[in-house]
Design goal:
The complex is a heterodimer of chains A (286) and B (368). Chain A has 286 residues and is of the alpha/beta class. Chain A folds into two domains: 221 residues, P-loop containing nucleotide triphosphate hydrolases (Rossmann fold), CATH 3.40.50.300; 31 residues. Helices cover 31% and strands 26% of the residues of chain A. In chain A, strand 7, helix 6 and strand 8 form a beta-alpha-beta unit. In chain A, the strands form four sheets. Chain A has a six-stranded mixed sheet with strand order 6-7-8-3-9-10, sandwiched between helices. Chain A has a four-stranded antiparallel sheet with strand order 2-1-4-5, covered by helices on one side. In chain B, strand 3 and strand 4 form a beta hairpin. In chain B, helix 1 packs across helix 10 and helix 2 packs across helix 10. Chain B is of the alpha+beta class and 368 residues long. Helix content of chain B is 54%, strand content 20%. Chain B contains twelve helices and twelve strands. In chain B, strands 1, 3, 4, 5, 6, 7, 8, 9, 11 and 12 form a ten-stranded mixed sheet that branches. In chain B, strands 2-10 form a two-stranded antiparallel ribbon. Classes of the chains: A alpha/beta (286), B alpha+beta (368). The interface between A and B is medium-sized, with 30 and 23 residues. The complex binds adenosine-5'-triphosphate and magnesium ion. Magnesium ion binds next to helix 1 of chain A.
């Protein structure tokens, strides 16, 4: 089941929907998402909080089954697999990177990586060597025997990247990998991920709020209200300035319509103009 | 995986210490109880062993030395001696007596023996000598310690002044100790010259013990049992009284020990739920995680066992100094049994944590 089908995209989602809860309180966290990520690609998915990014990533990593739709990883359909098979697929094909690092507190940096190599069946010696080499390649040769408490945030994230790479995964899934890092460390981590994708041919899917890391991605998609789409160029309705929707400094949602502004001044002007056309005191219905 | 288990244990030293302490106390109690039981069991029959008897004949209906009283005409002995296959039959004369020792009420199992016959006397004399004439007495070392009597001292038992001439060992059965006097004098004190309490029978080499027993049983008012059966009967003194208490205490200890491991491993599993979730997320199967929990449990059980064993030996050494009558015997097979119990506790204790592990959703790794 871990035979990678040649030519298949590293990750493919078809009509994937996840609904949490039932009845009127149900939340469509991910709504009919179609997505293909090819080998070696760095894809960044951005979107507002609660947009469904984590839910999408969790499903892509085989940790959550979709309510509807199909997910394939390196051509292997997750639907048809048992939990145990999915677990093995995760071990051999996917590397996870988390916002909060999720290292095992009682283990050293080297042991944290070693554990995953061992899970895949390697012997103790081989696992130690693989872990040491990986950590050294990420600049942590002198941190092998440090426990997570004694590592900085950036170092911890590099250990977790080493762990993610431990079994040569085709796909790396990262959820807000830079959120707990300062911007320099954040860029460093992203550059590292890009290098890994480009030099080692691995696919990286990263979800993040952080638009400072956009230039590192090959492609950026927008996930909002569970729907995935291309980023649009938008216009400030007042001054006519061209804006990127994810970067627009000010937004306003009125009647289910989103307006983007270059700043608060234009928004104020917009509201004023709108109120002039409306009966006083009822600003938001037309 | 096992290294994660051990490192987790080691990283939480306080919790580990509590677990080990709880298990160790349970193990200590169990080992001391078993050793005490074994001590009584072996010592209670040490005197019977030392007689070298093959068969004990008694008055019908009174089998052991402690619960009943057996008295038979000395003529029974002549009848037994006529049975083919009997090599020797010697009288056993003795019973428990209480007497006043400078205002204190003390008691001992007084045995009259025939030094010439060399049967039924003190098991091992460690100081002084054996009884050679009436008016002399050999007492047990523990009895000497408890009463303050020593060689040269005189005690009046049932109106007979008896001078201590020797101190013996192997005649302490915790509830009381054997004392030895001249057999003729014992008959005067306890019975009459024509009554024996038991007959200590030795069969000729090659004779069939069971056949001889059957033949003795035919004699009117007499019953006979083999040496082993007689020991078993006497052991029932403790099996009937102490064994149930020991079993109850041991079971309570086991339950408490198991609960301590279960609770500490369980709380640690809850606290580490996220880490277990991470392991699941990166592809560890449930089986791997069970092994971590089981290893922690077993390690706690094993270390607790080792510490408990040391404690038990310490406690027994201390108590034996403080209470001379205290008897313990620790057999390797019992230690192996207790080890099995400790490991069993660990396995049972890992049930709850394992249940908890199953319920951990690996998706928690993405939650903040
Ligand atoms: N296990 C769950 N049960 C119920 N609702 C959930 C669950 N997980 C997520 N949701 C809901 O699904 C929606 C999408 O959540 P998700 O965590 O995927 O968003 P996100 O884009 O990752 O947000 P953020 O940027 O804040 O991390 C939210 O409305 C959230 O409340
Ligand atoms: Mg999220």
């Amino acid at each position: 089941m871990d035979t990678k089908t040649i030519g298949s995209p590293a990750l493919s989602l078809q009509e994937v929907t996840k609904v949490f809860g039932q009845g009127p309180s149900a939340v469509r966290a991910v709504d009919a998402v179609d997505l293909e990520v090819s080998q070696g690609e760095v894809l960044l998915i951005q979107g507002p909080s609660g947009g469904g990014k984590t839910t999408l990533l969790t499903m892509a990593g085989g940790l959550l089954r979709p309510t509807q739709g199909d997910i394939s990883i390196t051509g292997v359909k997750l639907n048809g697999l048992s939990d145990k098979q999915v677990s093995h697929l995760r071990l051999m094909t996917i590397g996870f990177i988390f916002q909060s690092f999720n290292l095992l507190a009682a283990l050293t940096a080297q042991e944290n990586v070693e554990v995953v190599v061992r899970l895949a069946g390697a012997g103790k010696k081989e696992a130690r060597r693989t872990a040491a080499e990986l950590l050294a390649s990420l600049g942590l040769a002198r941190r092998l025997n440090h426990r997570p408490v004694n590592l900085s945030g950036g170092e911890k994230q590099r250990v977790s990247i080493a762990r993610a790479l431990a079994n040569n995964p085709a796909l790396i899934l990262a959820d807000e990998p830079t959120a707990n890092l300062d911007s320099a460390r954040g860029r460093e981590v992203m550059a590292l991920l890009r290098g890994i994708a480009k030099e080692q041919g691995r696919t990286v899917l990263c979800v993040s709020h952080d638009h400072r890391i956009r230039d590192i991605a090959d492609r950026v998609l927008w996930l909002e209200d569970g729907r995935l789409r291309q980023l649009q160029a938008v216009k400030d309705p007042v001054c006519g300035m061209s804006l990127d929707e994810s970067l627009a400094p000010v937004r306003l949602v009125l009647d289910r319509e989103t307006y983007y502004f270059c700043g608060v001044v234009c928004r104020a002007a917009f509201l004023e103009r709108r109120n002039a056309h409306e009966p006083a005191g009822v600003p938001s219905s037309s | 995986m096992s290294s994660i288990a051990l490192k987790n244990l080691w990283a939480e030293k306080t919790r580990f210490t509590i677990t080990v302490g709880g298990v160790a106390l349970a193990i200590t109690l169990i080992v001391v109880l078993i050793s005490l039981y074994q001590g009584w069991s072996t010592k209670i029959t040490a005197y019977i062993d030392a007689t070298g008897a093959d068969i004990w004949a008694s008055q019908k209906g009174s089998a052991d030395m402690f619960h009943g009283f057996s008295a038979m005409s000395s003529a029974t002995r002549d009848a037994i001696l006529r049975i083919p296959g009997v090599q020797r039959a010697q009288p056993f004369v003795g019973r428990q007596v209480a007497f006043d020792l400078s205002g204190k009420d003390v008691h001992t199992f007084l045995v009259g023996y025939d030094p010439a016959a060399g049967v039924g006397g003190p098991v091992r004399i460690v100081q002084g000598r054996g009884v050679t004439s009436p008016g002399e007495m050999v007492i047990d070392r523990v009895f000497a310690k408890n009463t303050g009597l020593g060689i040269g001292d005189t005690a009046a038992i049932l109106g007979h002044p008896l001078k201590v001439v020797g101190i013996a060992e192997g005649t302490n059965i915790f509830v009381y100790q054997y004392s030895f006097v001249d057999q003729g004098e014992a008959r005067d004190m306890l019975l009459s010259q024509t009554i024996d309490n038991y007959e200590i029978v030795k069969v000729a080499p090659g004779a069939d013990v069971q056949l001889v027993i059957s033949a003795i049983n035919v004699l009117p008012g007499v019953q006979a049992v083999s040496q082993d059966a007689f020991k078993e009967l006497n052991r029932s003194l403790i099996d009937d009284t102490f064994l149930p208490i020991i079993v109850v205490l041991a079971v309570i200890s086991l339950v408490v020990g198991t609960a301590v491991i279960a609770l500490t491993i369980f709380t640690s599993t809850i606290e580490k739920a996220r880490e277990y979730g991470v392991l699941k997320a990166v592809g560890a199967t449930n089986g791997r995680l069970y092994r971590i929990v089981l290893t922690q449990s077993l390690a706690s059980g094993l270390v607790g066992y080792a510490v408990g064993l040391l404690l038990a030996f310490g406690v027994m050494a201390l108590v034996e100094q403080a209470v001379p009558a205290f008897l313990t015997a620790t057999r390797l097979v019992d230690l192996a049994l207790v080890l099995a119990l400790a490991l069993g506790m660990a396995v049972v204790a890992s049930y709850m944590p394992v249940r908890r592990l199953i319920s951990i959703d690996p998706a928690i790794v993405f939650k903040q």
